[in-house]
Write a structure and sequence with these properties.
Blueprint: H1 16-23, H2 25-38, H3 40-46, H4 51-77, H5 83-88, H6 92-105, H7 116-144, H8 148-178, H9 184-206, H10 214-221, H11 228-241, H12 246-276, H13 284-290, H14 294-308, H15 311-334, H16 341-365, H17 369-377, H18 382-397, H19 399-410, H20 415-419, H21 426-452, H22 458-472, H23 482-492
Helix pairs in contact: 1-8, 1-9, 2-8, 2-9, 3-4, 4-7, 4-18, 4-19, 6-7, 6-9, 8-9, 8-13, 8-14, 12-13, 12-16, 12-18, 12-19, 12-21, 14-16, 15-16, 15-21, 17-22, 22-23
Length: 506
């Protein structure tokens, strides 16, 4: 091993500062997700591309990316067998390669073009490059330490940095749009590229991987090697097995409904504000999105509320607040309120606070979900559950843009509407307002209904863990208490007699 590559395998003391350095990559992770849902659709429309094709760019791209991501984790797992993997690290090699590809491609997306195929090809390539960065990067806490508390330092920093990335994306775009630069998107794209690439390189250079000791290599080599067909079959079987878990089914439903509703808001907000609200500047949508900076504060508050009130409270707090703010946006249009800028500011601050809680809650509930699976299978399958959530989120991540584009095209909206908003027909305005209002509210409302029946919380999880510990210590299933039995059956959706099998069910 060369002297220059030893740092990849050299552990260091994990501090808050190093946790921040690790988490910096989520400036891009959080920022990119909001660029996809909140910027790309509006940008492509501004190039004169039909809204149906504009929505298809992110829709098709995300589906391709989801399929790529499905198998890419396994590729990095086995990359230690190559000379490149041994020299640069099986995870870090792809972080570096993905970062270089991203640095080249990302500015190219913001070049003006009237061909939607150009944007589709560049977008898919960017998504693949980002997957090459994020998938290995997300494994690093496991590689860097076995300590639960130190992993928490590393992973916990992501949450706030991701929220910062969201705010940063819209603040930069809002400033350049306010300056009325004719190349605002291109300049913004270059600035984003510089910030994101620097963040990725800092994470790349300040993190490390588990050393490839003979013992670790033997452990890796002991894992069964599957053919491509065998790997695909096992992955599909593992994915579908997670749906036997009632708590996970509800959690995934709430997660996908609420996040897709949020995506509809981000996708439609620029079109709604510019085409339907009287007396506002064209940079107003980005100013409203930049208020996501308030989400950093609400995330801090949500951290305490998660402990004191539990996830169901946070779900309801965020969902009901979002529904109220959507009613507020709709009334500004329906009542023909003029000079509504400050009213929109107040509504948007409330929305952004609720949105941050919406994003915060599912991933803070998630660590408890594999424990429900554990009592069902006796296995440790947290990775499978994380993969399922990521796969479905990526598959639905751009669904809002795709559907919004189709709906807008259906009501007669086109690129000329955006350039001559003063003469937007009332029928098209009404259609835009209804798409903007109905889709998010319907999805968020259904998520709220499902979340009411979600039973996994601090109390029920404590009882579940106590029961798992009792069974692991050799306790008889016949000795279960009525309370523990009811909790286990309620969370798993299966009779108590069928859980904790004699043999591992994986």
């Amino acid at each position: 091993m060369s002297e220059n590559s030893k740092w990849v395998y050299q552990p260091k003391k994990i501090t808050v500062r190093r946790g921040i350095c690790y988490g910096l990559t989520d400036l891009m992770g959080g920022g990119w997700n909001n660029i996809v849902s909140g910027v790309i659709f509006a940008f492509v429309l501004s190039q004169g591309i039909d809204p149906a094709f504009a929505g298809a760019i992110t829709g098709l791209g995300r589906i391709i990316d989801a399929l790529f991501s499905l198998f890419f984790g396994a590729i990095t797992d086995g990359f230690y067998r190559t000379k490149l993997g041994q020299r640069f690290g099986r995870r870090h090699f792809f972080m570096l390669l993905g970062g270089v590809i991203f640095a080249i491609l990302f500015p190219l997306f913001w070049v003006k073009s009237s061909d939607w195929h150009y944007y589709l090809i560049i977008y898919v390539a960017i998504e693949v490059a980002i997957a090459m960065i994020l998938i290995p990067w997300e494994t690093l806490p496991t590689e860097m330490t076995e300590s639960y508390s130190l992993r928490t330092v590393l992973s916990g920093s992501r949450m706030f940095i991701s929220a910062t990335g969201t705010a940063l994306v819209f603040v930069i775009l809002a400033v350049l749009q306010h300056l009325q630069s004719p190349n605002a998107y291109l300049i913004t794209g270059i600035i984003w590229t510089i910030i994101f690439v620097v963040a990725i390189f800092v994470s790349y250079r300040t993190t490390w991987e588990r050393a490839l000791t003979p013992e670790f290599v033997a452990e890796l080599d002991s894992r069964p090697r599957l053919t491509l067909l065998g790997f695909i079959k096992k992955t599909v079987v593992d994915y579908f097995s997670t749906f036997k878990n009632r708590a996970f089914r509800k959690h995934l439903t709430v997660y996908l409904l609420s996040f897709t509703g949020k995506d509809f808001y981000s996708t439609m907000l620029p079109t709604f504000i510019i085409c339907c609200i009287q007396g506002v500047r064209k940079d107003t949508p980005w100013t409203l999105q930049a208020l996501s900076v308030f989400g950093i504060l609400s995330t801090l508050i949500a951290t305490k509320l998660m402990i004191t009130h539990g996830p169901r409270f946070l779900f309801s707090l965020s969902y009901l607040t979002i529904i109220v703010t959507m009613v507020g946006y709709f009334l500004v249009w329906a009542l023909h309120i003029k000079q509504a800028f400050w009213i929109l500011i107040i509504i948007s601050v409330l929305y952004q606070c609720a949105r941050a809680i919406l994003e915060f809650t599912p991933w803070n509930v998630f660590p408890f979900i594999p424990d429900v699976d554990r009592v069902m299978t006796r296995g440790d399958r947290a990775g499978i559950y994380a993969a399922v959530m990521t796969f479905f989120r990526k598959s639905t991540g751009a669904l809002a843009s795709w559907i919004a584009g189709i709906l807008l095209s259906g009501i007669g909206f086109n690129s000329k509407t955006m350039t001559d908003v003063s003469n937007t027909p009332h029928g098209i305005q009404t259609g835009i307002a209804l798409i903007f209002f109905v889709a998010p509210v319907a999805l968020i409302f259904i998520a709220e209904i499902v979340s009411i029946t979600f039973k996994l919380n601090r109390t029920s999880h404590g009882i579940l863990i106590k029961e798992i510990n009792r069974l692991e210590a050799g306790g008889a299933k016949a000795d279960v208490t009525p309370e523990a039995k009811a909790i286990v059956e309620g969370l798993t959706g299966h009779p108590y007699e069928s859980v904790w099998p004699e043999e591992l069910l994986i």
